[in-house]
Amino acid sequence: MKIVRFAHDEAIRYGILDGTELVTLAGDPMYTGYDTTGERVSLNEVTLLAPVIPRSKIVAVGRNYRDHAAEFGNEVPAEPLLFFKPNTSVIGPGDAIVRPAQSQQVDFEGELAVIIGKVTRNVASEQALEHVFGYTVANDVTARDLQRSDGQWARAKGFDTFCPLGPAVETEFDLDAAQVVSRVNGEEKQRAPLTDMVHGVADLIAYASAAFTLLPGDVILTGTPAGVGPLVAGDVVEIEIDGLGILRNLVRDI
């Protein structure tokens, strides 16, 4: 089931994608549950938004693909390398990634995003996937020069517009059969199966939940493969994951 968040008739709502139509929902599926309203609306009549705006946090994982760690001369950490992105960095499909004046190198990073569905604390890897609401596509946009100069990643990863998500949340997804592909202006830059992750989704949830409670709507970004690179104003960046769709964003300067 693919769930989208959309704007229509000056209201923001959720819907289930059914071909070229949306079955509209009453309620917020990530937080309060939902029922179908019986109403349908054409996909062509709506504006898709980020499918979730975390009320709490975005947990991201660094160096979770060996080839990506190697392309920057880094070792793969023995345990997941976690950092946070603020929820104010989230944008949706079609929104603009804005290159801030403070940075001279803004990179794309195509990733799988995991949406937590219930309160999760100290969960074992064997039960971790039971706590997932669904999956979507993410772009962990990074001010690479600031990441190097700051010595930590909060600013480099946290600018407004630096966490595109979408286009939909898929509640049924085969992690072992999909790959992530990134393109800039139609030219392929990244391609890797999700099975190339050093630490898989279940282990990431278990590891994070042993440190801090994960709440419904929290997002986990699972890391990016090799091939990341800079974006300039006017670029169109696409991140695609089999079964989840294509997340497409334009790039502009501030």
TrEMBL record:
Residues 57-251 form the Fumarylacetoacetase-like C-terminal domain. Residues 1-51 form the Rv2993c-like N-terminal domain. InterPro entries: Fumarylacetoacetase-like_C, Fumarylacetoacetase_C_sf, Rv2993c-like_N. PANTHER family: ACYLPYRUVASE (PTHR11820), ACYLPYRUVASE FAHD1, MITOCHONDRIAL (PTHR11820:SF7). The keyword Transmembrane does not apply. One of its GO terms (molecular function) is acetylpyruvate hydrolase activity. The keyword Hydrolase applies. This is Fumarylacetoacetate hydrolase family protein. One of its GO terms (biological process) is carboxylic acid metabolic process. Keywords: Hydrolase, Metal-binding. It comes from Microbacterium radiodurans.
